[in-house]
Design a protein that fits this description.
Bound molecules: methylmalonyl-coenzyme A, adenosine monophosphate
Distance between the termini: 47 Å
Largest sheet: 7 strands, mixed
Number of strands: 21
CATH class of one domain: Alpha Beta
Radius of gyration: 22 Å
CATH topology of one domain: GMP Synthetase, Chain A, domain 3
CATH superfamily of one domain: ANL, C-terminal domain
Helix content: 25-40%
Shape: globular
Low-confidence stretches: none
Mean pLDDT: 93
Structural class: alpha/beta
């Protein structure tokens, strides 16, 4: 957190990295972002030692947080004089957030100080933040949800943040019930786990003293929404965002929070729904969701082509970001409902899994000639990836899983491997993934 704030204050760029990443994912990010300074912890040194010389070639200095903690405990750190800071413009780059986006290998979404500020100011107003608030935050700080919606907005409000390194239902329930916490943010998997925990215990789980509990990053099922309300007396507020845009839509703080919807545009955000030709659909029809506003990023890092493909212009020349999410807007009340994605992206427990990346790893395993990864519904994770593989020789499933674990983050490893004689293809040879479960 200190490194994040200091880097922003300095006018340099922060590139957050998921601690679950393995050599291949880390090498990709390092070679693309070319960072000069790396802040990490001792536990990561093992995986970093597997990263090739090339991967770390731009890193001039590696700082371990364990050392930083000791250094801070030793006394007041000396501060540089304000004149050492160069002035920062709102249009300066603040964050490179890697995301799989709609296609291809992960790309750095270029977020400026103004982009972050737009999301933060929108949320401060929409969710009625104050400096009296305390937020309990257990989400990872390397994604928008934990870092911007949680940490940055809370700090901007002058509020207090209680950070937990990991989500543990017992510890979270204790904090929520303590009366000392006003807000909690989670992905749907966290709320499901809280309910599972509550179902196994004979305690009261009344949370009516809390100000706001939000869900986002993946669809919240109507079942979890309703059960949470009946168990705790709190109605979850569901909202919708993206790495590229920060927060876009939100159910109201005061007003009806409709299960299954993600509410209306946040202050400063415009949203529209278009058909395959890019024309606005008739009110109430489904189509792809596009957004615009100060929150929308200025493009992908070193990927001008991908940036161009991700934006469209309307008749008055306004630029809209194509989210890849399918949606409908209720003509009566303006609430948006998300209906899935126009792309193959799998969202599992709030983490993105891009099938092609996993398929490439599977095909690098001796004896596997073809692989297809598809998302299937899961109670625990919302959605999980399972793999269909075509192989020329028999293999031990555990060896394949261990191979995957060496090459990609554990959450991307398929939860099931199904050998298959051939992948279903259409006349053009394209794999028909929708036919695979049958
Ligand atoms: C962990 N595992 C998973 C996932 N997480 N499998 C599938 N999907 C996952 N998300 C697997 C691990 O690989 C491991 O498998 C086993 O579960 C236990 O791992 P552990 O790390 O102990 O899991 P956990 O601590 O229980 O993590 C579950 C979690 C975590 C707390 C739900 O996934 C999480 O923090 N998710 C939130 C991510 C997030 O903040 N997303 C926001 C993105 P094995 O035992 O086989 O090794 S920002 C965004 O989406 C936009 C902007 C937005 O709108 O917010
Ligand atoms: P990311 O690429 O990690 O920023 O994930 C962004 C994607 O998460 C969006 O494009 C949506 O598909 C999904 N998402 C975020 N919030 C919600 C939500 N409340 N309901 C359904 N999907 C969501």
């Amino acid at each position: 957190m200190i490194a994040y704030l200091a880097t922003l204050r300095l006018g340099a760029i922060v590139v957050p990295m998921n601690l679950a990443y393995r050599q291949r994912e880390i090498e990709h990010m390092l070679s693309d972002a070319e960072p000069r300074l790396m802040v990490t912890e001792e536990a990561q040194l093992e995986v970093l030692s597997e990263v090739g010389e090339d991967g770390l070639s731009t890193v001039e200095e590696l700082v371990l947080v364990e050392g930083l903690d000791r250094w801070l405990a030793d006394g007041t750190p000396t501060s540089t004089s304000p004149s050492a800071h160069r002035p920062i413009a709102g249009s300066d780059l603040a964050l490179l957030m890697y995301t799989s986006g709609t296609t291809g290998p992960s790309k750095g979404a270029r977020l400026t100080h103004d982009n972050i500020l737009a999301t933060v100011t929108g949320l401060l107003a929409a969710w009625d933040w104050s400096d009296q608030d305390t937020l309990l935050l257990t989400l990872p700080l390397f994604h928008t949800h934990g870092l911007i919606v949680g940490l940055t907005t809370a700090l901007a409000a002058g509020a207090t943040v209680r950070l937990h390194r990991k989500f543990e239902p017992t510890a979270v329930w204790a904090e929520l019930l303590s009366g000392e916490v006003d807000l909690f943010f989670g992905v749907p998997t966290l709320y499901r786990r809280l309910l599972d925990h509550a179902a196994g215990h004979r305690a009261r789980y009344d949370l009516r003293h809390m100000r706001l509990l939000c869900s986002g990053s993946a669809p919240l099922s109507a079942d979890v929404h309703e059960t949470f309300r009946s168990v705790t007396g709190q109605t979850l507020l569901e909202r919708y965002g993206m790495t590229e845009t920060g927060m876009n839509l939100s159910n109201p703080y005061a007003g009806e929070r409709r299960p299954g919807t993600v509410g209306t545009p946040l202050p400063g955000v415009s949203a529209r729904i278009v058909d395959a030709e890019g024309c606005r659909v008739v009110e109430g029809e489904q189509g792809e969701l596009e957004v615009r506003g100060g929150n929308v990023f200025d493009g992908y890092w070193r990927a001008p082509e991908k940036t161009r493909e991700s934006f469209t212009s309307d008749e008055s020349g306004q630029r809209w970001f194509c989210t890849g999410d399918l949606a409908r807007c209720d003509p009566d009340n303006g609430y948006f409902t998300l209906l899935g994605r126009s792309t193959e992206l799998i969202i599992s427990g709030g983490y993105n899994i891009y099938p092609r990346e996993v398929e490439e790893v599977l095909c690098a395993f001796p004896g596997i000639t073809e692989a297809a990864v598809v998302g299937v519904p899961s109670e625990e994770w919302g959605e999980v990836g399972i793999a269909y593989v075509v192989c020329t020789s028999s293999f031990a499933r555990d060896d394949l899983l261990a191979f995957c674990r060496r090459h990609i983050a554990a959450f991307k490893v398929p939860k099931e491997i199904r050998p298959i004689e051939a992948l279903p293809r259409n006349a053009l040879g394209k794999v028909q993934k929708h036919r695979l479960p049958q």
